[in-house]
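Quick start: what a row looks like.
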Amino acid sequence: MLDLSNIELGFNILVAILLVATIAYAVILNKKLDALREAKAEMEGLILSFSETTAKAERSLAEFKVHASDTGSGLKENTAKADGILSDLSYLVDRAEVVADRLEEDLGLARQKSPETVLPKGVKPGEIKKGKKQIPDKEAAAKRDLSPAAEDLLKTLKGMR
């Protein structure tokens, strides 16, 4: 038969082995907890920095939205003004074409009736041939006392027809 003292000794040895394993596990666990505590301090700093950066980003985004809204409103206003100006200019150009056509017709009729009375400034009656337009050279243009801007305007108007 088994002696009770042998069983008791076996249980004591088993408890001692388990106790040594528990102590070893506790030491390892303690080292990991120390490392975790150190990492916790670093993590708190990182989380605080992340929180501040997130708050700055939210403020910047809100400001950006306000500026974008203001800019969009300004663009809408400018576009509306530009549309109004465009329609006004279109109307003025249409009216100017009608008036220019009328003036050209009236000038043509007046030249047919009496060419000498409707000559441009500085052009002499002998310089125009009947039925044909004579193109004046640069000296003739200088004689007419027109500024370069006026000459450019005349060229542009002739080019539009």
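That is the whole record. Helices lie at 4-113, 138-143, 148-160. The longest helix spans residues 4-113.
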